[in-house]
Amino acid sequence: MKKFLMLTLVLMMGLLLCGCTDSREAADVENEDFIVVGFSQVGAESDWRVANTLSMQQALSEKNGYKLIIDDAQNKQERQITAIRNFIQQEVDYIVLAPTTETGWDTVLAEAKAAGIPVILVDRMIKVKDEELFTCWVGSDFYLEGKKAVEWMEEYFGDREIRILHLQGNYGTTAQLGRTKGLDDGLANNPGWTLVHRQSGEFVQGKGQELVEECIAGGIQFDVVYSENDNMAYGAIDALKAAGLTPGEDVFVVSFDASHNALQLTLAGEISFDVECNPLHGPRVEDIIQRLEKGSTPPKYTYVDETAFDSETITQEMIDQREY
Ligand code: GYE
Fold first, then answer.
1. Which ranges of 95-204 would DSSP assign to H, the alpha helix?
2. 3 pLDDT exceeds 80?
3. Cβ of residue 276 lying under 6 Å from some atom of ligand 1
4. How far apart (Å, rounded) are the C-alpha atoms in residues 248 and 3?
C-alpha cells in the first residue's frame, strides 16, 4: 500500500512537472506577439564571434518584437544538429544557423524544410545538394579577404624574398577555405614567397600562441605570420615577444577580422595589416526576417562590404568610429 502511494505520488509529481515545462515552453514559443527565432551559434572562440552574438541579441530583442533562443554549439556540428532539431520541436518561426562547417547539413535542413521553418544562414556557407534547403545567406567574401591581404603583402614586400608562417582557422570552414585560397594564389604568383609551415590554430588565441612557440622552438624561421583571425594573431604576437622578436620589425603579422583590440594593435604597429570581417549580422538578419514576414523574397546571397587597415595609415579616430 505504502509502495503504491509512493508510486502514485511520484507519477503525479512527474505529470505536474512535465505539464509545467510543456506549457511554459508552449507559452514561450506560441506567444503571438513575438517572432520566435532559434539561433544556432558556432561558439565563443573569438572576439569576432562574441561581437556577432551580441549583434544578434541586440537586433532580435524583445523590444524589437522577437524572442531569441540562442544555442552555443561549442564548435561542434553534432550540437548544432541537435539544436536545430530542438528548434523544430519548439515550432520556432525562423531558424538562423551560423554553421561550424560547410558539409553535413542535408538531413537536418530537410527536416526544417518539412516543418515549414525558413532557415537563414549567417557568416560561413554550407554545401547542400538542394539549395532550397535554406532561404538565404548573409556573410563575407572570405576569398576576397584573402586576396586583400595578399595584395598588401605584394605591395609591401615587393620583390623581397619572404618566409611565411600560416596559421589557419578550423579546417573546412568557409573562412578558412577562402583565406587559405587567397594565400595559395599569392604563393603561386610570387616566386620569392616560401611557405615554411601551415597548421590550424582553430581560430583561438592559445592555439595560435602554441603553434608559433613550437615553430620558434623548432628553429623554423619566418618573416610573416599570416593569421586567419585576430585571436590567433594575439597569440602569435605574445609568442614572438616572448622569444625576443619585435612584431612589425622582425616579423610582420597579417590578420583578419579587424576587431577592436586588433585595430589597437594595428595602430601600435604590432599587426601590420588587418582585413575587416564584419560580424554585425544582427540587423541584416532582422531585415531579412521583416522582408519574409511581408511576403517578399530576400536575395539568396548577400555579401557584406568590407575594408582593411594598414598600420601605416590607421588612426585612433578611425578605430573610435567603429561599432565593434
Ligand atoms: O574570422 C573568426 C571566427 O567565420 C568569419 O570565425 C568567421 C570566423 C572569424 O571564429 O574569428
1. 106-114, 142-157, 174-189
2. no
3. no
4. 76
Measured between alpha carbons, how far is 216 from 214 in angstroms, rounded to an integer? Answer: 5
**Beta-sheet strands, E only, within 173-212:** 193-200
CA of 49 from ligand 1 middle (Å) equals 6
Q: Would strands 66-72 and 35-41 be described as parallel, antiparallel, or unpaired? A: parallel
Q: How far is the CA of 48 from the centre of ligand 1 (A)?
A: 6
Between CA 282 and CA 264 the distance in angstroms is 24
pLDDT tens, 90-145?
999 999 999 999 999 999 999 999 999 999 999 999 999 999 999 999 999 999 99
Q: Is the pLDDT of residue 223 over 60?
A: yes
Q: Provide mean pLDDT across the span 41-54.
A: 98
Cell of 201: 590554430
Ligand 1 pocket test, candidate residues 46, 56, 74, 174, most atoms within 8 A of CB: 46
Residue 174 CA, closest ligand 1 atom number: 4
Ligand 1 near 234 CB (within 6 A): no
* CB distance 289 to 35 below 8 Å: yes
Q: What is the pTM of this model?
A: 0.90
In ligand 1, the atom with minimum distance to the C-alpha of 142 is 5
**Cα(204) to centroid(ligand 1), Å:** 10
All three cell numbers of 98, joined, read: 551560423
Report the C-alpha dihedral over residues 49, 53, 54, 59, rounded to 10 degrees.
Answer: 140
Ligand 1 neighbourhood includes 124 CB (under 6 angstroms): yes
